[in-house]
Amino acid sequence: MTVYLGYLFTLLATALSLLVTDIVLPGVNIQSFAAALVAGVVIGLVNAFIKPILTLLTLPINFLTLGLFTLVVNGICFSLAAAITPGFSVHGLVSFILAPVILSFASTFLNKYFAERNVDIKNTSLKTEV
After folding, report:
1. Cβ–Cβ under 8 Å, residues 115 and 85
2. Residues of 36-58 as b/e, b for ≥16 C-beta within 10 angstroms?
3. Could you tell me if 28 and 95 are in contact, meaning their C-beta atoms sit under 8 angstroms apart?
4. Using CA atoms, how far apart are residues 56 and 83, in angstroms rounded to an integer?
5. DSSP state, 66?
6. First to last CA, the chain
7. pTM, to two decimals
8. Could you give the CA distance from residue 80 to residue 74 in angstroms, rounded to a whole number?
9. Is 100 exposed, middle or buried (0-12, 13-18, 19+ CB in 10 A)?
10. Angle at 4 between CA 129 and CA 85, to 5 degrees
11. Three-class secondary structure assignment of 18-42
């Protein structure tokens, strides 16, 4: 049960992070919260299955650019998720590069927030049981 709750919180954090990215960057457009939830699932799947392959294929370029090409790989994955998801679009080079960075920062912040709240809930429930 706790594992599913963790996935739910991660999905919720990703969807909220996408909405933050939509607010910050004019080139990222999300039509609704439902589209953000679907985009969160699609981004997770793209990052799990396609991003490792792209990273491996672009390893020589990434080595030559001292890791900066990772930003391009992240942008490709983000744009691919936008192409697959209805109600989610990315336009422009700045959004292509910066949107995954903003998404990462916002998602990390929200995941840490949910993790801290989850620990507080667990500690509170343990204290009441003893």
Report:
1. no
2. bbbbbebbeebeeeebeebeeeb
3. yes
4. 22
5. T
6. 22
7. 0.86
8. 10
9. buried
10. 150
11. HHHHHHHCCCEEECCHHHHHHHHHH
Structure-token match 């429930």, residue found? 125
Residue 116 has what pLDDT? 81
Q: Give the pLDDT confidence of 17-44 residue by residue, as tens digits.
A: 999 999 999 999 999 999 999 999 999 9
Which residue carries 């003893």 as its tokens? Answer: 130
- Ramachandran bin of 91, using left for φ above 0, alpha for ψ from -120 to 50, beta for the remaining angles: beta
State both tokens at 7. Answer: 């996935």
Q: Quick one: pLDDT band at residue 122, thresholds 50, 70, 90? A: low
Query: Are 1 and 91 in contact, with CB atoms under 8 Å apart?
Result: no
pLDDT digits (tens, 9 = 90+) for 60-83: 999 999 999 999 999 999 999 999
